[in-house]
Write a structure and sequence with these properties.
The protein is mainly alpha-helical. The protein contains six helices and no strands.
Length: 189
């Protein structure tokens, strides 16, 4: 009987002190080293506590059209920087109206407009690296002065070749002659 009387007396004492309701029961928080169970519909968290996507969700990647546009923009900017070098060393043989331009040379590489034309256009970055010696080969162009493209001018052409190749590999040159075949071809111009 004493066991039942004590809770009753405690309740009466609280009521006498002006308490309107008994204090709410609280559960102590779990210790820091104990994992907290998430509600069943909660998303799992990664190792840093960020909520992860559901396992069947496809992550939103970059828009392929935007990627191609960005690659082409970088290529065009690199071409704008290299254009004076191309004109200085290549135009006489590879541009309409050039003093040494022939149908054969223009068929391989036509720089009259940009993007370049000719049946080697899709592999042009690799070809230019080779003929100017950027890849470590002995330069064979320009035809009248092989190896004369040097220093900053050669760096501008190399930067264009890198940007062109990135665009090409990123699928931005679909339909361009030579797009389906990269590399390994040796051509005399």
């Amino acid at each position: 009987m004493t066991r039942h009387l004590f809770p009753l007396l405690a309740t009466l004492a609280l009521a006498a002190c002006g308490s309107k309701s008994p204090p709410a029961e609280t559960t102590p928080p779990p210790p820091d080293d104990e994992p907290v169970a998430a509600p069943p519909d909660a998303m799992p968290a990664d190792h840093e506590g960020h909520t992860m996507a559901p396992p069947d969700a496809v992550p939103a990647g970059p828009d392929p059209a935007q990627v191609k546009a960005d690659l082409l923009a970088a290529e065009t900017a690199a071409y704008d920087q290299a254009k004076p070098v191309f004109e200085k060393y290549c135009a006489s043989c590879h541009q309409k109206g050039g003093k040494s331009a022939t149908a054969k040379k223009m068929g391989h590489f036509d720089m009259t407009e940009y993007p370049f034309g000719g049946h080697h256009t899709g592999e042009m970055a690799e070809t230019i690296r080779k003929v100017l010696g950027i890849d470590g080969s002995k330069p064979t162009m320009p035809k009248n002065k092989p190896g004369s493209v040097k220093g900053d001018e050669l760096s501008l052409i190399a930067a264009w070749a890198d940007a062109f190749q990135a665009s090409h590999e990123g699928g931005a040159h679909e339909g361009m002659p030579g797009h389906e075949g990269h590399g390994g071809h040796e051509h005399k111009h």
